[in-house]
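Write out the 3D structure for:
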Amino acid sequence: MKNIYKFVLITILFSVCWSVNTQAQEPLQEVVHYIRGGNVTGMARYFDKNVTITINNNEASYSASQAQIVMKDFFNKNVVQEFSVAQGGNNGTHAQYAIGDLMTSSGMYQLYVEIKLHDDKFLIQALRFEKIEKPTR
C-alpha cells in the first residue's frame, strides 16, 4: 500500500513539474510561431510597455504601439519565408530567449528575441535583427 502512495505522489509531482515547465515555455513558442508567420498582431500581444528593437545596429526603444508599427514596416519590407531557432534558453524562471536565422524576401537575418516575466506574464523586451551578408568569393 505504501508503494502505491509513493507511486501516486511521484506521478503527481512529476506532472506538476512538467506542467509548470511547459507553461513557462509556451509564450516563447507562441512568439516564435508569430515570427514565422510574420504575424505582428500576434507578436504585439506579448510586447511590454517598452520594447527595444535593433535593426542592423540601429537600436531604439519604442512604446508597444510604436513597436507594432516598426515591426509591421519591417515585415512588409522583409516578408518572412522561414525562421529556424538555433538556440534558446532561459535565465532562471524570469527570462527566456531565442536566437535563430530569419530568412526573408530580402535576405537572411540573425534574430534574437528576449522575453521577461513582468506582472506574471512573459513579455517581449527586445528584438534584434542583424542582416547576414553572403560571403564574397
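The longest helix spans residues 2-36.
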